[in-house]
Write a structure and sequence with these properties.
Blueprint (H helix, E strand, L loop, with lengths): L6 H41 L9 H13 L10 H10 L5 H16 L7 H18 L4 H20 L2 H10 L2 E2 L7 H17 L17 H33 L5 H18 L9 H8 L8 H14 L7 H19 L3 H17 L2 H12 L4 H14 L10 E2 L26 H21 L1
Helix pairs in contact: 1-4, 1-5, 1-6, 1-8, 2-4, 2-10, 4-5, 5-6, 6-7, 6-8, 7-8, 7-15, 9-12, 9-14, 9-16, 10-12, 11-13, 12-13, 13-14, 14-15, 14-16, 15-16
C-alpha cells in the first residue's frame, strides 16, 4: 500500500529547498556586491586626485559603448530593465553579461558618468541565479525565482536594506501585484547578501532622523500635498529620460559617435556648472539628509546628466541618481512646505523612488530601514500618493501593469509599460455613468425624506 505524501511535507520540503538555494545566491551576490562597491569606491577616490577627470568622458564613453555593443553583442542583459524583461520571458543570463555589468558600470561611473551602483549588483545577482539554475537544470519557473532572489540580494547588498531589497525584487516585476511565493527566498537572499557584504567591510549609509514632527492634521495635509508634488516630479524625471533616449535614437551616426557627443555634453555640464552632478554623488545625498540646503536646480541638472549618460552609451543603474534627485529636491523645497529640511529630504528620497519605479511598498520599508520607524506613517502616505500621481508610466519599460491606478483611466492591463500609451484618455463614459448613478442615489434619498 502506497503512502500518501501530505501537503505539509511537500511545503516543508519546498521551504527547505528555497531557503538553501536563496542562501547560496545571497552569499555569492554578497561577495560580488562587496567586491564591486570596494572597486568602485577605490576608482572614485582615485578620480578625486584629478579635478578635471571628467574631461576624458568623450573618449571613455565611446569605449564603453563599443565594449557594450560590439564585444559579445548577444550578451546585453546587464541593466535592470533588461533583467526584468529576461525574467518575464523566462530566458537565461550569460556569464559575459555578468562580467559586463561588473566592469562597464565601474568604468562609466568612475569616469564621471551619472549612473547608479545598484543595478550592476542586482543584475549580477540575477545572473548568478540564472547560472545556478542552468547548473542544476532547473525548470523555467525555478529559474525565474532564483533570478528574482538575485535582484533582491543585489539591491540589499548595495544599500544595506535587506527587507526593502527583498520586497523590491518581487514588487518591481508587476505593478499592482506581488509574487508572494518568491517573497521568502527573496528575503533570505537579501538578508544573506547584506550580512556577507557587511562582514566583508561594506559600509552603508543609515541616517536616523533627529527631528520628526508629532502628528497633526496640518502636517498630515502637508505630507499629502507633498506626495502630489513628488509624483509630478517623478513624472517629469521619467519623461525627461524618455525624451533624451528618444533624442539619442534620432542622432545620426554610429553608437561611437553618439557616445562621443554624450561625453561632450557631460563635460560641458561639469566644466560650466559643476562636476558635482556627475558620477555617483552620494556625498550630496548624505549632506541633504543631514539638513544641508541644496540649490533648487540640483535635481534638474542631475536628471539631465543621468538621462544623457544612460541614453548615450553609459552603463549603470538609475536608483542612485533617483536618491540624489529626491534628497536634493526635498532639501530645496523644504522651506516652501515649511517642513524640517532633514525630514523632508528623507521623505522626498523614498517618494521619488516609489513614483519613478512603481515600488511604493519597498520604498516605504526602505524609509524605515534608513531613517527609523518614526517616519513610517508620513513616508508611506507620501510614497503611495507619489506612486498614484506618476500615472501609468515607469522608468522600467519592461514592467508589467497588473492593476490600473484609477478605474477612470482607460489603460489595458497585462501589458508592459513600453507598450502602454502614457497619454491615455480618461474614460468619460464611465465617469458619466458614475455621476448619473450617484445623482439617482441622492434623488432617492431626498424622495424618501
Amino acid at each position: 500500500m502506497k503512502k500518501k505524501i501530505t501537503e505539509e511535507t511537500v511545503i516543508f520540503a519546498s521551504v527547505v529547498k528555497w531557503v538553501l538555494l536563496a542562501t547560496v545566491v545571497g552569499i555569492f551576490t554578497g561577495i560580488a556586491s562587496s567586491g564591486f562597491v570596494r572597486l568602485l569606491d577605490y576608482s572614485i577616490s582615485f578620480q578625486a586626485g584629478f579635478p578635471y577627470y571628467y574631461m576624458f568622458l568623450p573618449l571613455i564613453l565611446p569605449c564603453v559603448a563599443y565594449l557594450s555593443i560590439k564585444v559579445f553583442p548577444s550578451s546585453l542583459d546587464y541593466t535592470t530593465d533588461k533583467v526584468i524583461s529576461v525574467i518575464h520571458g523566462g530566458r537565461k543570463i550569460s556569464l559575459v553579461s555578468i562580467i559586463k555589468a561588473f566592469f562597464l558600470s565601474i568604468i562609466s561611473i568612475a569616469s564621471g558618468g551619472s549612473a547608479g551602483k545598484e543595478a550592476p549588483c542586482a543584475d549580477i545577482g540575477a545572473g548568478f541565479g540564472s547560472l545556478f539554475s542552468a547548473i542544476f537544470k532547473f525548470n523555467t519557473v525555478d529559474r525565474k525565482k532564483l533570478m528574482i532572489c538575485g535582484v533582491s540580494a543585489g539591491f540589499a547588498g548595495v544599500f544595506g536594506v535587506p527587507v526593502s531589497g527583498a520586497i523590491f525584487g518581487v514588487e518591481v516585476l508587476f505593478v499592482g501585484s506581488i509574487l508572494y511565493d518568491v517573497f521568502l527566498p527573496s528575503l533570505v537572499a537579501g538578508v544573506t547578501s547584506y550580512q556577507v557584504s557587511s562582514a566583508l567591510g561594506a559600509k552603508y549609509f543609515v541616517e536616523p532622523l533627529n527631528f520628526v514632527p508629532h502628528f497633526s492634521n496640518l502636517f498630515f495635509l502637508k505630507i499629502i500635498i507633498a506626495g502630489v508634488f513628488f509624483g509630478i516630479c517623478s513624472f517629469a524625471f521619467i519623461e525627461i529620460n524618455r525624451f533624451v533616449k528618444h533624442l539619442s535614437s534620432k542622432f545620426s551616426g554610429s553608437v561611437i559617435i553618439r557616445a562621443f557627443f554624450g561625453g561632450i555634453i557631460l563635460c560641458l555640464i561639469g566644466f560650466l556648472i559643476s562636476p558635482e552632478y556627475l558620477s555617483l554623488g552620494m556625498n550630496t545625498v548624505e549632506n541633504s539628509l543631514r539638513g544641508c540646503e541644496a540649490p533648487f536646480y540640483a535635481p534638474i541638472i542631475k536628471t539631465i546628466t543621468t538621462a544623457v549618460t544612460l541614453a548615450f552609451g553609459g552603463v549603470g543603474g538609475i536608483i542612485t541618481p533617483i536618491l540624489y534627485v529626491g534628497s536634493t529636491l526635498g532639501s530645496a523645497a523644504s522651506s516652501l512646505f515649511g517642513i524640517n529640511p532633514q525630514t523632508f529630504s528623507a521623505i522626498a528620497l523614498v517618494s521619488l523612488l516609489a513614483g519613478i519605479t512603481n515600488a511604493p511598498i519597498a520604498s516605504s520599508v526602505m524609509a524605515i530601514e534608513l531613517f527609523g520607524p518614526e517616519i513610517a506613517p508620513y513616508a508611506c502616505v507620501s510614497c503611495l500618493v507619489s506612486f498614484l500621481m506618476t500615472g501609468h508610466r515607469s522608468i522600467y519599460p519592461s514592467q508589467v501593469l497588473s492593476v490600473r491606478k484609477s478605474e477612470s483611466v482607460d489603460v489595458e492591463t497585462g501589458k508592459t509599460f513600453g507598450k502602454i500609451d502614457p497619454s491615455c484618455e480618461i474614460d468619460q463614459k464611465k465617469i458619466q455613468r458614475k455621476i448619473k448613478k450617484r445623482m439617482k442615489e441622492i434623488m432617492h434619498i431626498e424622495n424618501n425624506k
